[in-house]
């Protein structure tokens, strides 16, 4: 095992040449952070397109080379001990040597600087910063080594503090204008002759001034192995095992062969000239729109590029050939357009598998029943905890908004026409009082959460949770394991996503293309060059002759070795190396060739990065956008309760704008985000992989799509902040720093500066900062003493048009995509900022829109838009709720309409119906499968056709009114059907028969093989409720006018249609439903056309159509009442799913667990009404009990394969004769019995062993 050594870590070094042509001819969007704003709780970064340095084009001193080094990725990632812990970032190297070489008078000249990255001084520092005490200062300085020898000044007071995020700005180390003389320098090259062309190269090397803070200072090889695995690094030549430890790391990178000509032409660069823009709800959605423009033979309909890409993205491509695959894919696609949010948990019992000698199935069912009470108590406590946690989040949101406003520099003055305080300064005083009240409310709710948490298993980690579950269960449920499962998620709307094609975003990943970063040890450095490919003629600087800049620091000692490697890798220094080794002219040419091929000719391990020839970089970092948003009010005042009067029409799936309600004074929305490259190669590989297992036609289409994807240059970015701005919140994100400034806790940089000492406030700020932007309360009343119009939108619905879009790289060089129209051509709402550079004028910009974001078209095929002019530029955003919510379709107990969990889902059964098409009747069974009776056509004493009740043999309900006590929903159904008459009975039979042809559930549930299927498919009457739950109290406008005492939200006045069922989806089992207990009218999934063919003279059936029969408000779960909840009785195939579609949320579904209906379904006895029928008696069956049977009859019937066939006929009032039956044969029976005419019921009872 060798002695520990330094680890040499390669880094990406980029050099941007800004000569006169670049400075004057290319657009830049460079800005600085203003940390003075932090004390007012404002973001230090300027809003998008604001604060841009426009002087670069007119200031020659901005010319030169901008050199930036990228930190290793492992040093830019923060970590927390657990999900709720603060994220801590590692400190990074704080000393950097920069060496420049260039050709001058036939030789190579050198200059060097030492960058003290953590130097702090408000005057002598370079880049704006915030120090440990929250004071605005400047950081970083560069010292020219040719002016004297540099001495290490020692660590700063308190130790090293510099991280990749600096004072808490995520892009501090990535965006060069933020970090001059910290992680970059501006080399003006003033000493170079401006009339000459120069070849320039750079070396950068960085280290920790305090070695004890260097994470690579691990001398033990095993510790180094752990570190390398954690960082994703490896050491060249030690892939199979680390040979020795390490003492420190030195990060290093090079730029080779840069061409500098101050007055020359613009260097070639991958910066794009044109960029295509697609807009969708997700990257797959937008990419599908792009692919739809591609010419792929045979790709249409279900094979369209958009459909195929969406199916691939959602993982349902292989399911497309299933009967209901189209509907499953559509629902998953819709769900992907929303952002899921946790809505709580419930607990379930998982039975431990039985061994061969353990309990019988009946005993295990009994054990489960005894454990249900234990589970019910736990689920009640869990629901209480989830509710308390939601209330706490809402209280913290209120406290956060008040606290944030409290730090602003100005407050509203009293207004005579507003309900504001009456004296100057009173608003601030009132705000302080509200904060105190809100803080107390948070404390109360924190205590309530703590109390509720104490009653349930709880842990911060998986191990803690497992231990808590085991302790809670104890010996109470020995045959079961408790499992916590998430409740169906709540969903908030995605923000629109922009997909850029052609932005050259692939340049972003060039430095990290390798899976692992390959480090080296000093012994691995390049020390020479081979002149020949056989590697026999080696050339290197003689010992002690490697050229060095003046005053090179002696520590770290590896700097000299890195300079030597630099000298052997830089092709521009070939002549200098040739001079040092007295090469011939021929060998000089060979040396130039060899140094241009380091991987083939270098003697040593070539560094992973920095050996290719320089090219002007283009590394996209930011996406900036500005759009005019035109709200379209959902309803006119007073019409909110009637969906038919809304400005948006619901067609049962989606909303369509009617052309009414547009607000022509737009809101200006802006945003700036870091770019996210889309992994095109991964998408291409997925296409090719799936294509191999598909039929030739579809496979070929997918291969074509894969080829297109492989060539794609795609960057996806949501319009972050779009939704928040429509809720009256800020353009910029909340300040992310909280805590001791400049500590390694990057989320803690301003807590001491910005936050009062209250833990309640601190926790509220920490939680809410991660969830939402701060309120936009800064607009004060104008000269007319009126508050400006609020941006707050109760419902997000409208159209937007982009005013400007740009891509900005690490150096602030911009590629404008959309630019504002010339002033004379601007539309209302255009911003005041100017953009320098090329791009498409906003009025001429035509984004590629994915389906659902395209405005509908009128009869002349023109888009229906808020402004007719340039209508193709508009993006339509259909109605969405302002916060996360979920549609709930829950089972209720049939007895008293109480919500039930999955364990009690059987209690939702109100009975069973079998449509007997043989005699056109409907058989009714109790929830447990007991036969009750039938509704059949009859004749009254007057000879009129009526519908009547016929009790089944041994029914506990011989009279229809007997149903009321124990089967209330069956009673109401039967009474209403009889009252409606035989026409309604026939209409219901026809609707059931027609609907069942479209129901064929598939999935994990077992197939229905019960004896009831001999007659018909049993349909369950299931009690359920529908409601729309918000994730907490409705959001309110946080603007100054509304902040102190928020006006109630008007969201609860809007009622949203809910459509149940999906006729063409084979997996949807809904036949129809009734509202509340209004059994005189059934809502059918059939279309009006289908119902017309059935005939319904009684008006018993009404089509569900777009679902306006159920229209509900979206409310806080604790605010629901009778008005806001629809209680229903569903008629459904128990094996199917019932889907609920709203158009504003993902589809909700109700599916009964098999345990809820398997037992009663198996008990149902199929009953056939016959008579008069000539029947021959037979001798009593051997072993028959005379007390149970009245004889044996011979009947033409199926064999006893799945049950026992028995004949029942009325006896005395309320009693029945019961006969065993045998299949009739042609064999003679002597003595010959006399046949008799009989009228009664032939029933087939399930075999005893088939009943669970």
**Mean pLDDT level:** 86
Strand content: 25-35%
Question: For the terminal residues, how far apart are their CA atoms?
Answer: 69 Å
**How would you describe the oligomerization state of the chains in this entry?**
single chain
User: Structural class of the secondary structure composition?
Assistant: alpha+beta
Count of discrete alpha- or pi-helical segments spanning 4 or more residues? 23
Largest sheet: 11 strands, mixed
Question: Which descriptor suits the 3D outline?
Answer: elongated
Q: Pick out the low-confidence regions.
A: 296-302, 510-514, 737-755, 828-837
Number of E strands: 53
Helical proportion, percent range: 10-25%
Notable traits:
coiled coil; 26% strand; alpha+beta; single chain; elongated; 1252 residues; 23 helices
Fold topology:
Blueprint: E1 5-10, E2 13-18, H1 20-25, E3 64-69, E4 95-104, E5 107-120, E6 127-130, E7 136-144, E8 184-187, E9 198-207, H2 221-231, E10 233-235, E11 246-260, E12 276-280, H3 283-292, H4 305-314, H5 325-336, E13 338-341, E14 345-351, H6 361-406, H7 426-453, H8 462-473, E15 480-486, E16 490-493, E17 497-501, E18 517-519, E19 528-530, E20 538-539, H9 558-569, H10 574-581, H11 585-595, H12 598-601, E21 602-603, E22 620-631, E23 648-650, E24 655-657, E25 667-674, E26 676-677, H13 680-691, H14 696-710, E27 714-718, H15 722-725, H16 751-754, H17 759-771, E28 796-809, E29 814-819, E30 840-841, E31 848-849, E32 875-880, E33 885-891, E34 909-916, E35 921-925, E36 931-939, E37 945-951, H18 963-966, H19 968-980, H20 982-996, E38 1019-1030, H21 1040-1043, E39 1056-1057, E40 1059-1060, E41 1070-1075, E42 1082-1084, H22 1088-1094, E43 1101-1103, E44 1111-1112, E45 1114-1115, E46 1126-1132, E47 1137-1141, E48 1148-1151, H23 1154-1163, E49 1166-1178, E50 1192-1195, E51 1203-1210, E52 1216-1223, E53 1236-1246
Parallel strand pairs: 1-11, 10-18, 12-31, 29-30, 38-45, 42-43, 50-52
Antiparallel strand pairs: 2-3, 3-8, 4-5, 4-9, 5-7, 6-7, 9-11, 12-17, 13-16, 14-15, 17-27, 19-20, 19-21, 22-25, 22-28, 23-24, 26-27, 28-29, 28-32, 33-38, 34-35, 34-38, 35-36, 36-37, 38-46, 39-44, 40-47, 41-42, 41-46, 47-48, 49-50, 49-53, 51-52, 51-53
Helix pairs in contact: 3-4, 6-7, 6-17, 13-14
């Amino acid at each position: 095992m060798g002695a520990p050594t330094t680890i040499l870590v390669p880094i990406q070094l980029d050099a941007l040449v800004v000569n006169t042509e670049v400075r004057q001819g290319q657009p830049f969007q460079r800005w600085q952070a203003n940390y003075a704003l932090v004390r007012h709780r404002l973001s230090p970064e300027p809003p998008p397109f604001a604060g841009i340095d426009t002087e670069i084009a007119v200031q020659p001193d901005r010319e030169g080379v901008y050199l930036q080094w990228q930190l290793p990725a492992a040093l830019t990632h923060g970590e927390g001990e657990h999900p709720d812990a603060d994220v801590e970032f590692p400190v990074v190297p704080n000393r950097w040597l920069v060496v420049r070489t260039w050709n001058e008078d036939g030789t190579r000249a050198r200059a060097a600087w030492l960058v003290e990255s953590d130097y702090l001084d408000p005057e002598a520092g370079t880049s704006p910063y915030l120090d440990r005490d929250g004071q605005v200062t400047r950081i970083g300085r560069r010292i020219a080594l040719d002016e004297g020898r540099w001495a290490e000044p020692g660590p700063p007071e308190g130790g090293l503090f510099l991280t990749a995020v600096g004072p808490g700005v995520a892009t501090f180390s990535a965006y060069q204008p933020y970090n001059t003389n910290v992680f970059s320098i501006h080399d003006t090259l003033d000493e170079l002759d401006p009339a000459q062309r120069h070849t320039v190269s750079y070396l950068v090397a960085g280290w920790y001034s305090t070695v004890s803070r260097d994470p690579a200072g691990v001398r033990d090889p095993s510790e180094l192995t752990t570190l390398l695995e954690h960082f994703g690094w490896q050491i060249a030549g030690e892939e199979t095992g680390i040979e020795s430890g390490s003492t420190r790391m030195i990060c290093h990178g090079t730029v080779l062969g840069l061409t500098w000509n101050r007055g020359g032409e613009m260097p070639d660069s991958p910066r794009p000239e044109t960029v295509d823009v697609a807009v969708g709800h997700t990257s797959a959605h937008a990419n599908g729109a792009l692919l739809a423009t591609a010419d792929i033979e045979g790709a249409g309909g279900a094979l369209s590029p958009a459909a195929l890409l969406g199916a691939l993205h959602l993982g349902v491509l292989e399911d497309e050939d299933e009967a209901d695959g189209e509907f499953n894919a559509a629902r998953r696609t819709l769900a992907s357009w929303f952002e899921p949010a946790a809505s709580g948990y419930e607990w379930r019992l998982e039975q431990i598998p039985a061994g061969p000698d353990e309990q019988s199935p009946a005993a295990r069912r009994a054990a489960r029943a005894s454990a249900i009470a234990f589970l019910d108590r736990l689920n009640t406590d869990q629901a209480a905890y989830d509710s308390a946690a939601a209330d706490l989040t809402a209280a913290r949101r209120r406290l956060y908004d008040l606290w944030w406003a409290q730090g602003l520099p100005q407050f509203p003055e009293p207004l005579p026409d507003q309900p504001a305080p009456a004296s100057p300064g009173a608003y601030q005083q009132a705000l302080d009082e509200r904060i105190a009240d809100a803080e107390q409310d948070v404390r109360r709710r924190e205590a309530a959460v703590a109390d509720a948490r104490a009653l349930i298993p709880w842990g911060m980690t998986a191990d803690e949770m497992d231990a808590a579950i085991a302790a809670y269960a104890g010996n109470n449920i020995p045959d079961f394991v408790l499992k916590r499962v998430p409740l169906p998620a709540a969903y908030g709307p995605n923000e629109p996503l922009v997909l850029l094609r052609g932005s050259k975003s692939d340049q972003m990943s060039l430095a990290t293309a390798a899976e692992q970063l390959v480090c080296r040890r000093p012994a691995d450095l390049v020390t020479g060059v081979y002149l020949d490919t056989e590697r026999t003629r080696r050339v290197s600087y003689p010992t002690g002759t490697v050229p060095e800049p003046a005053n090179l620091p002696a520590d770290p000692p590896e700097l000299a070795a890195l300079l030597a490697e630099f000298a052997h890798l830089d092709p521009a220094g070939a002549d200098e190396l040739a001079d040092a080794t007295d090469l011939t002219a021929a060998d000089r040419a060979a040396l130039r060739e060899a140094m241009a091929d380091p991987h083939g000719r270098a003697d040593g391990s070539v560094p992973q990065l920095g050996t290719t020839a320089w090219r002007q970089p283009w590394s996209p970092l930011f996406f900036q956008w500005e759009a005019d948003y035109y709200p379209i009010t959902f309803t006119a005042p007073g019409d909110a309760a009637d969906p038919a009067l809304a400005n948006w029409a619901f067609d049962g799936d989606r909303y369509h704008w009617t052309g009414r309600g547009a607000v022509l004074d737009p809101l200006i929305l802006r945003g700036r985000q870091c770019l996210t490259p889309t992994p095109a190669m991964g998408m291409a590989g997925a296409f090719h992989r799936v294509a191999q297992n598909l039929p030739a036609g579809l496979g070929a289409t997918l291969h074509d799509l894969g080829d297109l994807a492989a060539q794609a240059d795609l960057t996806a970015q949501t319009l972050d902040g779009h939704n928040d701005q429509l809720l009256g919140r800020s353009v910029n994100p909340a300040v992310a720093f909280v805590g001791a400034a400049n500590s390694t806790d990057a989320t803690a940089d301003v807590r001491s500066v910005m936050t009062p000492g209250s833990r309640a406030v601190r926790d509220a700020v920490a939680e809410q900062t991660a969830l939402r932007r701060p309120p936009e309360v800064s607009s004060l009343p104008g000269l007319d003493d009126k508050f400006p119009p609020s941006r707050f939108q109760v419902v997000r619905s409208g159209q937007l048009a982009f005013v400007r879009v740009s891509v900005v790289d690490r150096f602030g060089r911009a590629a404008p995509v959309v630019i504002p129209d010339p002033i004379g051509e601007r539309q209302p709402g255009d911003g005041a900022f100017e953009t320098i550079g090329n791009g498409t004028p906003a009025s001429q910009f035509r984004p590629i829109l994915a389906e659902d974001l395209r405005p509908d078209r009128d009869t002349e095929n023109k888009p229906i838009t808020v402004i007719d002019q340039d209508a193709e530029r508009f993006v339509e955003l259909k109605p969405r709720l302002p916060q996360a919510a979920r549609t709930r379709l829950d089972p209720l107990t049939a007895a008293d309409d109480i919500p039930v969990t999955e364990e009690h889902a059987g209690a939702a059964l109100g009975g069973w119906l079998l449509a007997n098409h043989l005699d056109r009747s409907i058989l009714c069974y109790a929830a447990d499968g007991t036969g009750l009776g039938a509704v059949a056509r009859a004749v009254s004493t007057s000879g009129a056709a009526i519908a009547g009740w016929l009790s089944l043999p041994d029914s506990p309900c011989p009279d229809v009114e007997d149903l009321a006590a124990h089967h209330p929903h069956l009673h109401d159904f039967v009474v209403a059907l009889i009252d409606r008459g035989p026409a309604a009975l026939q209409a219901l039979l026809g609707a059931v028969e027609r609907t069942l042809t479209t129901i064929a559930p598939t999935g994990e549930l077992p197939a229905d093989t019960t004896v009831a299927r001999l007659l018909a498919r049993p349909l369950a009457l299931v009690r359920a409720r529908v409601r729309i739950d918000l994730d907490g109290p409705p959001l309110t406008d946080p603007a100054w006018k509304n902040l102190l005492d928020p006006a109630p939200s008007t969201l609860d006045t809007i009622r949203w249609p809910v459509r149940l069922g999906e006729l063409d989806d084979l997996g949807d089992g809904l036949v129809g439903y009734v509202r509340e207990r209004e059994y005189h009218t059934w809502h059918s999934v059939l279309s009006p056309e289908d119902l017309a063919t059935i005939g319904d003279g009684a008006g018993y059936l009404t089509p569900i159509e777009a679902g306006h029969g159920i229209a509900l408000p979206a409310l806080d779960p604790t605010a629901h009442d009778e008005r806001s909840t629809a209680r229903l009785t569903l008629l459904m195939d128990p094996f199917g799913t019932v889907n609920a579609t709203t158009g504003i949320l993902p589809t909700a579904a109700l599916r009964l667990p098999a345990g809820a209906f398997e037992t009663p379904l198996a008990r149902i006895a199929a009953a056939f009404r016959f008579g008069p029928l000539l029947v021959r008696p037979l001798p009593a069956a051997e072993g028959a009990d005379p007390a149970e049977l009245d004889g044996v009859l011979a009947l033409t019937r199926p064999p006893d394969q799945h049950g026992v066939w028995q004949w029942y006929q009325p006896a005395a009032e309320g009693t029945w004769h019961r006969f065993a039956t045998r299949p009739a044969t042609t064999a003679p029976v002597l003595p010959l019995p006399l046949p008799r005419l009989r009228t009664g019921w032939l029933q087939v009872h399930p075999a005893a062993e088939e009943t669970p």
